[in-house]
Amino acid sequence: MRTAGFVVLAVVMRLVGGALSDRLGPVNVSVWCFTAVTLLAAVVAFQPGLVPVGTLAFLGLAAALGASSGATFALVAKLAPAHTVGAVTGVVGAAGGLGGFVPPLIMGAVYQFNGDYGVGFALLAATALATLLFTLGPVRRGARG
């Protein structure tokens, strides 16, 4: 049931991320989302108690990851040439599907090796930070052009 709540929140926040991107710009929404994911994944990496810190951190991750998905699709519409938006959206959607498949495999491997998920969430924080920096650099420059 908890997993379903995470997924429902992430799906609803995809809509919010898209709407916010229309108002504030997809790069700005992405920056805020990736900042939140970086910080919240770092918190979870230290394995806080589930109540209240762990629960709030996981719900925040669901919200930020969902909103960033909406911002990503808004960014595709902004950056891709008009005649390729459909194809690019398909590729981005496929990559998102892999994003729902590969990380759980990595987390399972981390758990088997380490006996906990801390390193996996630290890797998520590092990945989110790298994505944040990429968004602040090349993506922001591309969105201006």
UniProtKB/TrEMBL annotation:
Keyword tags: Membrane, Transmembrane, Transmembrane helix
Keyword Transmembrane helix: yes
UniProt cross-references to Pfam families, sorted A to Z: MFS_1
Keyword hit for Transmembrane: yes
Location of the Major facilitator superfamily (MFS) profile domain: 1-143
Ranges annotated as spanning the membrane: 31-50, 56-76, 88-111, 117-139
Main location: membrane
Its membrane topology: Multi-pass membrane protein
InterPro entries for the chain: MFS, MFS_dom, MFS_trans_sf
PROSITE patterns from the UniProt entry: MFS (PS50850)
Record SUPFAM superfamilies: MFS general substrate transporter
A GO molecular function held by the record: transmembrane transporter activity
Localisation: Cell membrane
One GO cellular component, as annotated: plasma membrane
Name of this chain's protein: Major Facilitator Superfamily protein
Organism: Promicromonospora thailandica
